[in-house]
Specification:
The protein has helices at 5-26, 46-49, 55-66, 144-150, and strands at 37-44, 52-54, 71-72, 75-84, 87-101, 107-123, 126-140. With 151 residues, the chain is of the alpha+beta class. The chain has one domain (5-150): Nuclear Transport Factor 2, Chain: A.
């Protein structure tokens, strides 16, 4: 299937949003998320950490939840695209290792595997994320205090 120049451009713009979101979270630059989401975006982390909300609610949650976490890394890959005019949907694999305080207080490496399910909307400022839902796949090596939060 041959892609048009517009379809290729749309995919690159959407990929930049996916990657930009990951770097903003990894860098704990939560105000940068305003550049990636629509003002009315809904972000659903309920399968992973039990919260769903608006962008301001999620930014506050991320500040609190990731504050004590020294190292976070999101790697996104294998994206499926469905683009129809000014609307798009993607499903993307995410591998998310972190170093967190373990139950003994010492640094502990943990791993999450998930899918990002996004909807996008073309705006006057380009593509923006209209919704994000995390779909849980696996977790590995979680300390008990984090297992309780993600159960």
């Amino acid at each position: 299937m041959a892609l048009s120049i517009q379809e290729m451009s749309d995919r690159f713009e959407i990929q930049d949003l996916l990657v930009g979101y990951c770097y903003a979270v990894d860098d704990k630059d939560f105000d940068a998320l305003d550049d990636f989401f629509t003002a009315d975006a809904v972000i659903d982390y309920s399968e992973m950490v039990g919260i769903k909300g608006s962008l301001p609610e999620i930014k506050a949650f991320l500040r609190d939840a990731l504050g004590p976490v020294p190292t976070v890394q999101h790697a996104v890959m294998t994206t499926q695209y469905r683009i129809k005019g000014d609307q798009a949907e993607t499903r993307t694999v995410c591998h998310n290792p972190m170093v967190v305080p373990g139950d003994d207080g010492e640094p502990q490496a943990i791993f999450f595997g998930l899918w990002y399910i996004h909807t996008f909307r073309r705006t006057p400022d380009g593509w923006r994320i209209a919704s994000l839902r995390e779909k849980k796949c696996y977790s590995h090596n979680l300390p008990d205090h984090i297992k309780a939060q993600t159960a």
